[in-house]
Amino acid sequence: MDRNSAFVKTLDKIGAKLKSMESRAEYARMFYGAGDMAAAYAQAFKLEASAEQAALLSRALPAYTGHPNAGPDIEKVMRNNIPVRIGFTREGWFSLQIPLLLPKKQGGSVEYIRSFLYPALRDFFLPRPSVRYTDCVIIYRHVYDRRRPERRRRDHDNIETNTVTDAVALYVMPDDDPSVCTHYYCGAAGGRERTEVYVVPKTDFQDWLTHEPEMPEESPALYETMP
């Protein structure tokens, strides 16, 4: 397939996804207005999945033009629109904060996460010395919008968290083998949905648990170097 054909075919796929999104949005509005929240949720979830697929297709589109800056320019757009916060807490724990939850989905989302998380971690550690936690707990703290009904929360143990663990382990652990790290998942209500990830030495885990209920609404401050 030549480059021009790939460009046009990708545009066609994006167009189809946009039409699907428009249809899903109208159905979601209709069911919500009728008070059928289960059906509204189903349509909203399908709308979100189509939006992710459209984003992935759109992200590939510039490269089909052959422009030499396509890759760096796309990464710049992702940095501006998906601001991942990375650093160390005042206790010396590594942390990253992703401005979205990590729900269980049927397709597309794993590559979506890889596409913005790996460049963010690479750019953070490029000018800094490597850090290695060898006996630790990797913590996923899912902060939900407090307006979200409890029954709509997603499973914590899913392929998206595994993808994030792989990325984090690449930069701050020898590997993510059970002999190196234990996993812990929890949730909290907040005003802004996000996923907070912490890598904490096992000797400090009880301290993290003690302080977790007191964490600030907008998540703890992060520092560029380990205190």
Describe this structure in words.
It is globular, with a radius of gyration of 20 Å. The N and C termini lie far apart (53 Å). α1 runs antiparallel to α2 (37-60) and α4 packs parallel to α5 (159-172). It has six helices and five strands. Helices cover 46% and strands 16% of the residues. Residues 103-107 have low confidence and may be disordered. It has two domains: 1-70; 82-227, Holliday junction resolvase RusA (60s Ribosomal Protein L30, Chain: A), CATH 3.30.1330.
Using the CA coordinates, give the radius of gyration. 20 Å
Any low-confidence stretches, pLDDT <50, length ≥5?
103-107
User: Architecture of the largest domain, CATH level 2?
Assistant: 2-Layer Sandwich
Mean pLDDT: 85
Strand order of the largest sheet: 1-2-5-3-4
For the sheet with most strands, the description reads: 5 strands, mixed
The percent range for strand residues is: 15-25%
Q: First CA to last CA: what distance? A: 53 Å
CATH class bucket of the largest domain: Alpha Beta
CATH topology of the largest domain: 60s Ribosomal Protein L30, Chain: A
What is the count of DSSP helices, taking H or I runs of 4+ residues? 6
Number of domains: 2
Order of helices and strands: HHHEEHEHEEH
Helical amount: 40-55%
Structural class: alpha+beta
- Total strand segments: 5
Q: Shape, please? A: globular
The H-level CATH homologous superfamily of the largest domain, spelled out, is: Holliday junction resolvase RusA
Brief description of this entry?
The chain is an alpha+beta fold and 227 residues long.
Break the fold down into its secondary structure elements and pairings.
Blueprint: H1 3-33, H2 37-60, H3 70-81, E1 85-88, E2 94-98, H4 109-125, E3 136-145, H5 159-172, E4 181-190, E5 194-201, H6 205-211
Parallel strand pairs: 3-4
Antiparallel strand pairs: 1-2, 2-5, 3-5
Helix pairs in contact: 1-2, 4-5
